[in-house]
Amino acid sequence: MAPVCRRTNKEMHRFSRLTSREIISVKSCVQSLGRRTQIENVLKVLKTRSGSLVDIGSGDGRIVIAAAKSGFKAVGFELNPWLVWYSRYKAWREGVHHNSSFYISDLWKVSFSEYSNVVIFGVPQMMEQLEVKLQTELQSSAKVVACRFPFPTWTPDDVAGEGIDTVWVYNAKTFKPPIRNDKDTERQELMTN
Ligand SMILES: C[S@@+](CC[C@H](N)C(=O)[O-])C[C@H]1O[C@@H](n2cnc3c(N)ncnc32)[C@H](O)[C@@H]1O
Fold it and tell me: CATH number for the domain including 81?
């Protein structure tokens, strides 16, 4: 059996030993996130894109799994280990474990530089700090999709959906400061002297 399946079996065993209180807590988180329209909006705005996708704070894995089904190589980073084990189990059950990975990680300790599509459904208080992090790390070909809460200073390229299912799309080209090479700096210095 492939190593991924062995890992999933071990996680399923761990998942099956949750206490009833832990099951209720995971279930309520999963139910509160189970909004199809929001996922549809995310996939709609990324329909011309391909390659790697990361969901920052992946919750129960619904976005990563839907993205993997749409052909992305999808990855989720999530602080809550129960949600990560649940996501891995769900990805295995839905047959997308080869196209998806989930890590128990703090988003502030991970670099997102390798991802060309980034999805975030965070809380408003974190968005300003996340702008700075993504602006530094992402390549200019990347796209960022913010669910429910937009980024405070970036200008979106596109908006889809309405109400709590709204998603905002940002093109990294528009928020990355232009790369200046040595020739530009020299020219600038000559002009000012
Ligand atoms: C609103 S939920 C969104 C879940 C998922 N992206 C979705 O749309 O279904 C936010 C998730 O971020 C996770 N989270 C919060 N702080 C985090 C951190 N510092 N590092 C990683 N995940 C975090 C929470 O545990 C929660 O599952």
Answer: 3.40.50.150
Burial environment of residue 132 by CB neighbours within 10 A (0 to 12, 13 to 18, 19 or more): exposed
Whole-model pTM over 0.85: no
Instruction: For residues 20 and 149, give the distance between their C-alpha atoms in angstroms, rounded to a whole number.
Output: 32
Length of the chain: 193
Domain count, the chain: 1
Question: Which residues contact ligand 1 via a Cβ below 6 A?
Answer: 33, 55, 57-59, 62-63, 77-80, 83, 106-108, 121, 147
Round to whole Å and give the CA distance between 178 and 33. 37
Distance CA(187)–CA(41), nearest Å, equals 45
Which residues form the domain of 14? 3-192
Q: What is the pLDDT of residues 8-49, one digit of tens each?
A: 555 555 555 555 555 555 554 554 454 689 999 999 999 999
Reference 79, options 118, 60, 107, 54; nearest CA is 107
Asked whether 166 and 148 are in contact (CB, 8 A), the reply is: yes
